[in-house]
Design goal:
Elements (H helix, E strand, L loop, with lengths): L6 E7 L6 E2 L5 E14 L5 E13 H7 L8 E14 L5 E14 L4 H6 L17 E2 L20
Parallel strand pairs: 4-6
Antiparallel strand pairs: 1-3, 1-5, 2-3, 3-4, 5-6, 6-7
Length: 155
C-alpha cells in the first residue's frame, strides 16, 4: 500500500538550469529553489531566512520546461520527495532527499523579460495581454466526494 507523499513549494530558481542526460539517454534537469520563510529575531522583530531545496525533472517535461527555468524565476512546484542512494568510487555510501517535480506553475513574465530570456522573438508583434499564470500541465479535475457526516451537522 502506498503512503501519501506530496510537496507544494513556492520559491525562486537560484541559477540558470541546464538540460542533462543520463548514461541511458534519459533527459533531466537538476536545480535549486530558494524559499523564503519568516523568522523572529532576538529583538522581537520579524525578518526572513531562505531554505534551499533541490529538485529534479525528467524526460519530455524537462525538455519542455528547461528554457523557462532561469535564475530568479518565481515558480510554484507540486511534486514528491524521493531519496537517492549511491556509492562513490571509494565505496563511500551517500544519500540525499530531492523533490521530484510533477507540475510547475510559473509567475507571468513581461514582454521584455520574455525577450531577454529567449522565450519571445523581439520582432514578434504580439498584443499585450493581462498577465496570467502559466502552467505546464492541464488542470486535473478534483472529484466531488459525498460526505455522509456533513448531512448530520446542524448549523
Amino acid at each position: 500500500m502506498w503512503d501519501f507523499n506530496q510537496v507544494i513549494l513556492q520559491g525562486r530558481v537560484t541559477d540558470d538550469v541546464r538540460l542533462k542526460e543520463t548514461v541511458n539517454n534519459r533527459k533531466y534537469c537538476w536545480f535549486t529553489v530558494a524559499n523564503n520563510a519568516p523568522k523572529k529575531n532576538e529583538d522581537g522583530t520579524f525578518g526572513e531566512y531562505a531554505n534551499f531545496f533541490n529538485l529534479t525533472i525528467f524526460d519530455d517535461y524537462a525538455v519542455k520546461n528547461q528554457p523557462k527555468l532561469f535564475k530568479g524565476r518565481k515558480v510554484l512546484i507540486v511534486g514528491r520527495l524521493v531519496q537517492n542512494k549511491w556509492f562513490d568510487t571509494n565505496g563511500g555510501k551517500h544519500d540525499e532527499i530531492r523533490i521530484r517535480v510533477e507540475k510547475m506553475i510559473f509567475d507571468p513574465l513581461s514582454r521584455e523579460e520574455k525577450i531577454k530570456h529567449g522565450l519571445l522573438n523581439e520582432n514578434e508583434n504580439i498584443q499585450e495581454e493581462i498577465p496570467v499564470y502559466e502552467t505546464t500541465e492541464p488542470e486535473i479535475p478534483v472529484p466531488e466526494i459525498e460526505n455522509p457526516y456533513l448531512s448530520e451537522v446542524v448549523f
